[in-house]
Design goal:
about 450 residues; 20 helices; globular
């Protein structure tokens, strides 16, 4: 068999290389040219961030693992049509989200193709999906588009955790391209936050995920708004698996919920709310009607979403359940599981801040020393005080409760496979101190 070096194509390339002059050292791409390339592709705004910028410190390793040649990140904005997003008919909003996603994906592919033709290597991770889903429920995305956009000067984070562009407001979606070239100039964060802190997002959120003091209840938002995404889909499948027969399934899941899940699977996952985005008046192109007549703005934009009769999905015993009962009694509460399973002690400790329900904590004031044995031996200190959570490595300070537990047993407890009382009686879980404080701890993290 002939060697690869004897192949005619390989020989032709080598002959060409031998006769061509040595190419000059790589030079940075002209920033103006690159910006115009993106705008001409249809992007509404663009900025450039060097891979070594401090804002990317917590992302750099993940980016380089996928694309070791990365030197510059191109952050891009796609503007959405506002009235679609504001409509109580969420099919309009979801269609707008998906079409803007698709437009950004097409624009990014076009830009990457042009760069490749110029000999510049580039990748364009998805706006949303597909992701590296084998890592679920851990980090499945390659790039966090929001911090890149902030670093690129395309906006700042509002209290609703959406990026607010200085001109387009939060009616945008984001995309990032990574290239192996530097550019002649980079963009920097804007020096102010367009967020008005008007608290309309607080008023509109059906599950109370956004606190007036800036607190964000991740679990409440994830459980309801993303009901038909990964966690909610898993919970739905578990409902099917647990159902004894067709009648039992219909007692658990309504026909409209089954149809809605089918629609998400067929046409793209549907957001159940995103009302925080719908009501936000920030941005130069957006703020006019709000400033002209706030009462009219409230009546036309905010109240239709507040008054909408709909199912709201919550974890039983969560802050969201209590909030909906108090604030929106005309909405139907649907108790569901989060659909997320804890895979390790590290993911348990790392996810506590996201799962913490501060209203369930109430006036709890306690320090917990955890000693995990077995496969994942480690120690940790968790304190809950004044509705605030702190997680520290090792044993710090004096414990009100000392908990020693086999790591596999604890994970099985969290995932509902075994009961706490069983773990205590079998000696897998040992509690030194007031066991009621352990029960209070568990109430702060309902699943």
């Amino acid at each position: 068999m002939a060697s690869l070096s004897d192949h005619p194509t390989v020989q032709a390339i080598r002959n060409k290389q031998a006769t061509e002059p040595t190419p000059p050292p790589a030079t940075p791409l002209d920033a103006t040219w690159l910006r115009n390339l993106c705008l001409e592709a249809g992007v509404d705004d663009v900025g450039f961030v060097h891979i070594d910028r401090p804002e990317l410190d917590d992302q750099r390793a993940d980016i380089l693992a996928v694309f070791p040649h990365a030197k510059t990140l191109i952050s891009m904005v796609g503007r959405m049509n506002r009235e679609n997003v504001r409509s109580p008919a969420r099919s309009l909003a979801n269609n707008e989200f998906h079409h803007t996603d698709k437009a950004l994906e097409d624009q990014a592919r076009s830009i990457v193709a042009t760069l490749e033709r110029r000999g510049i290597r580039a990748i364009n991770p998805a706006v949303g999906f597909p992701m590296e889903i084998q890592h679920f429920p851990g980090k499945t995305w390659i790039i966090s588009h929001k911090p890149v956009a902030i670093a690129a000067g395309l906006g700042q984070m509002g209290i609703h955790r959406n990026i607010i562009h200085p001109r387009f407001g939060n009616f945008i979606l984001l995309m990032t391209i990574v290239i192996d070239a530097e550019v002649t100039s980079y963009t920097s964060p804007i020096n102010y936050n367009p967020c008005l802190e008007c608290k309309l997002c607080v008023a509109a959120c059906p599950v109370g995920a956004i606190g007036a003091d800036g607190h964000f209840n991740f679990t409440a938002c994830f459980t309801h708004n993303y009901r038909e995404f990964m966690g909610g889909f898993t919970d739905w499948v578990e409902q099917i698996a647990d159902s004894k027969d067709k009648a039992d399934y219909h007692d658990r899941v309504t026909p409209s919920e089954t149809a809605s899940m089918w629609q998400s699977l067929s046409f793209g996952a549907n957001y159940k709310a995103a009302y925080c985005m719908a009501v936000c008046p920030a941005g130069e192109d957006v703020i006019g009607p709000f400033l002209a007549n706030r009462k009219t703005y409230l009546n036309e934009v905010v109240k239709p979403l507040q008054n909408k009769k709909e199912s709201v999905y919550v974890v039983a015993g969560s802050d969201a359940e209590a909030y909906v009962s108090r604030r929106f009694p005309h909405k139907t509460i649907r108790r569901i599981g989060s659909g997320l399973t804890i895979q390790s002690i590290q993911s348990f400790l790392g996810g506590l801040s996201l799962a913490f329900q501060r209203e369930q904590a109430g006036d709890l004031r306690a320090t917990y020393h955890f000693t995990f044995t077995g496969r994942e031996a480690q120690t940790a200190t968790i304190t809950i005080e004044e509705k605030k959570l702190k997680v520290l490595p090792g044993h710090v300070g004096k414990a009100d409760v000392a908990i020693k537990v086999d790591s596999s047993t604890w994970i099985n407890m969290l995932n509902g496979r075994i009961q706490t009382i069983w773990a205590v009686l079998t000696g897998k879980l040992k509690v030194k101190g007031n066991i009621r404080l352990l029960q209070a701890f568990q109430r702060c993290f309902p699943r």
